Amino acid sequence: MDILEVTIKQLCHELVECDKSPLSSKTNNSALFFVVDVGASNSRFGFSARGGSKVYIRFVKVSVNSIVALIAAFNAFAQQIGEAVCKRIVAATLNLPGPVQGAVGGPISNYLGSTSEEKILYLSALPASLCPPHHTVMLNDLEACAYGVVATHHFKIFSKYFTSLWKGTINPETGNAQGLSTGNCVVVAPGTGLGIAVVQYHAFSGKYTVIPLEFGHTSVQSETDRKFVDAYKSDLKRGDYAPEYDDICSGRGLERLYAFVLSEKGNSTSQKATAKEISDLARNDDPVAVEALALYHKFLMRVCSQMAIGFIPHTFVLCGDNVVHNKYFYERKGAVDTMKQQMLDHSCERYGFMSKPSMLRQSAFGNLNLLGCMYVCEGAARKESKL
Amino acid sequence: MDILEVTIKQLCHELVECDKSPLSSKTNNSALFFVVDVGASNSRFGFSARGGSKVYIRFVKVSVNSIVALIAAFNAFAQQIGEAVCKRIVAATLNLPGPVQGAVGGPISNYLGSTSEEKILYLSALPASLCPPHHTVMLNDLEACAYGVVATHHFKIFSKYFTSLWKGTINPETGNAQGLSTGNCVVVAPGTGLGIAVVQYHAFSGKYTVIPLEFGHTSVQSETDRKFVDAYKSDLKRGDYAPEYDDICSGRGLERLYAFVLSEKGNSTSQKATAKEISDLARNDDPVAVEALALYHKFLMRVCSQMAIGFIPHTFVLCGDNVVHNKYFYERKGAVDTMKQQMLDHSCERYGFMSKPSMLRQSAFGNLNLLGCMYVCEGAARKESKL
């Protein structure tokens, strides 16, 4: 996979004048795909094409945090790249951080505003010059990420992106991180929130499909960490509702865990630290930060445990930049053994269900969402949508 | 749908000599499908064919409760129907009560024995005369049931089998129970255990696929019913593990709830009653039985609530003979309003997520599993499996 952030000037050069880029009108006889990764504060607009058997993606970063600004950015981008390039687009796929139903996506929780007009994106609001009608797909961000995982398998670059934490019993070779297995794969991405999607394996046809999920919002179930859960529940002021895993296995969750560990050790909870600072502290062996990160992973394993019985997967893949950054944590003595114990800590382990899946982690940076969008474009170029 | 239990003699007559049956060699020019519903104590072996645009299924009941006896029953059945009929089978689909991975199904929990040989069914153990290689599919029971729901939609008989409990906000007309929606549908079947599967709607292609699940084994999460949960947890003797929804929303769960309500009212818990007896008592307004059934539905709504955020479905379908039997309960004054309140009782209702799906219930008896097997056979007849 050859994927790179460029400036708009560089992108225009690649698309039109460049003699070597697979995106250029001078070399590109195959399809041109428009791929978009909408984030909470930064979005990425890119183009993708096959360079031989390789995937080639170039994208620009756009900072927007409202639907109005996002749509304006789409229109400005269409003008910048020009009509001739637009005419070469055969399919488009965009992904956004919120539930998607057909041609309607959102609410995008970090976007400004409170009305649905301000938080929800409609496919119909996008310029047709960039997003060809009947050949444009809107995905949830984790759905795109999961298609990205399928794409790494398809393009035989899986082992460049993933590495093993432990091998499961159902199909141990899956633990070698050489590719997807002949079974389901749960994709888990702890970031601003906790994203989850499943790659479903269809045994009869041998095909993979993706199902986007919002299981990050499952209510936390814990018989043993009641003190933290109850304290957090009281902070969240949502009545008698338990926190959601998304409240804990996320940036703000790590911050809350850090404050909890501090106060448990008798320190004042007014010593606040950001998720980034806590991660840096943990890297430097700060015991409070290490314990907070360990608790964060304990709850992550707890929700994985529920997904392990729910989907009976062969594989879990922990994804995202945080997971790549946290390499040092997974390499700490005993950290992975503890995570595995926590994963197995479920009543269904009496049947061995928690031991079945292998656990992998993303080990190299790379925008899996854009790769997933590219993969979906290949299908959308061939078929007309029913939308 | 024309589906009926018959004797083996009647079945043989229909398959060979009958002048009118769509299954008969005298009339059947289209494909003959072998469909099997493996249950915990009774299994159903049947044949299916299209009678014009209608589905036609005839099956015999076989009482077996071990893998050895089941395989013997397959072989005996092949002999009874004879070689000429076997040669007309173009595809076979069977479903069984346990997780299925490709060509391996089980453990079947109610089956005798403790070794995997005694509890697990392999496709390769079945007679090829009944189950054509590369055209035979093995499904989980709820997966078959969910395909049955898709089939009722496909064959335009959905409204004969399902009726509305309430309409959701996302696509209110789905609440009219006229068919599947352009969104996911969660199929929930409380029986011997708690079965769950999802019909996934693919917006781009307009197609439905099914994903089998084991979310019935999710650990019970409850901030408000701790007394019952803790008492049950102690009974189950699984250490510090909470009960699973499968332990509560099932026959044995209803029995445990009844004992709990009795003891709460100061009666001795030694007054035991079977699930069937409790249901009959509730039908006759016995207050303890009614309260037990109400609690059973409270936990059912609780797990539906977690599925509602997880899958963001348009529809829930409560399925199975118990649901059809419990019609009187759903028609009790206030029962459905209470269930809806319980469904909405989740932190994500702050975004309106719990209000989105419509809730339907099965209102007429009919073996949806066999119908689902028939539906899957239509695909398996056309394609070769990768198994």
TrEMBL record, chains A, B:
SUPFAM superfamilies linked: Actin-like ATPase domain (SSF53067)
An example Gene Ontology biological process: glycolytic process
Molecular function as annotated in GO: ATP binding; D-glucose binding; glucokinase activity
Keywords: Kinase, Transferase
One Pfam family named in its UniProt record: Glucokinase
Matches recorded under InterPro entries: ATPase_NBD (IPR043129), Glucokinase (IPR003836)
Keyword flag Acetylation: no
PANTHER family: GLUCOKINASE (PTHR47450)
UniProt-recorded name of the protein: Glucokinase 1, putative
Organism listed in the record: Bodo saltans
